[in-house]
Amino acid sequence: MSDLTVVAQPYAKAAFDFAKETDALDEWQQMLSIAEMILTQPNTILILNEMDDDSSEQPLLEMMLQVGGEFMSQYFQNFLKVMAENHRLKAMSEVLSQFRDYVAELQQTMNVTVCTAEPLDDEQALQLTQALTQRFGKTITLEQQLDPSLVGGVVIKAGQTVFDGSVISNIGRLSTNLHV
């Protein structure tokens, strides 16, 4: 687990708990996305990388509030202030990711990425979605990615689980077994 993952956990949990309690999950997810978008701009990344652990994040916070403040509630601005006071703005992307995970868990949904060499047709996508829904017991949102290097087969990424049924991987496993 990376340092940012550990640092982000209490902030993501606090944001989620507050948003859930105030029935504002969508709004908080949007505000977190805006903050993350600001912090991932090339100029902002340069500023973040130049900061050491003792540098004040106040100028960065002020810039964030100036750019996105009109889209951020007072509660969210206070949340950002606490993160800045504790030198945690670098963890915003991870806070957003964990917040989304909490929301998905609450709503019993799961985003699944399917990598194939050729696009799935509607019937294949439907069958795969139904099989994954049955496997995980959650509503599945399928995202398709094309990767011609797979040659054939499929790679499915569902949370921390990866199913690799690609031709390239199968050939690699066969090659390894033949050399043993």
UniProtKB/TrEMBL annotation:
Keywords attached to this entry: ATP synthesis, Cell inner membrane, Cell membrane, CF(1), Hydrogen ion transport, Ion transport, Membrane, Transport
Compartments (UniProt record): Cell membrane; Membrane
InterPro entries, per database record: ATP_synth_OSCP/delta_N_sf (IPR026015), ATPase_OSCP/d_CS (IPR020781), ATPase_OSCP/dsu (IPR000711)
Membrane topology: Peripheral membrane protein
Keyword presence, Methyltransferase: no
GO annotation, cellular component aspect: plasma membrane; proton-transporting ATP synthase complex
Superkingdom to which the source organism belongs: Bacteria
Pfam families the UniProt entry points to: OSCP
GO molecular function, one term: proton-transporting ATP synthase activity, rotational mechanism
SUPFAM superfamilies, sorted: N-terminal domain of the delta subunit of the F1F0-ATP synthase (SSF47928)
Protein role: F(1)F(0) ATP synthase produces ATP from ADP in the presence of a proton or sodium gradient. F-type ATPases consist of two structural domains, F(1) containing the extramembraneous catalytic core and F(0) containing the membrane proton channel, linked together by a central stalk and a peripheral stalk. During catalysis, ATP synthesis in the catalytic domain of F(1) is coupled via a rotary mechanism of the central stalk subunits to proton translocation. This protein is part of the stalk that links CF(0) to CF(1). It either transmits conformational changes from CF(0) to CF(1) or is implicated in proton conduction.
PANTHER family from the UniProt entry: ATP SYNTHASE DELTA CHAIN (PTHR11910)
Family, per entry: Belongs to the ATPase delta chain family.
Protein name stated in the entry: ATP synthase subunit delta
Native organism taxonomy: Bacteria, Pseudomonadati, Pseudomonadota, Gammaproteobacteria, Vibrionales
The encoding gene: atpH
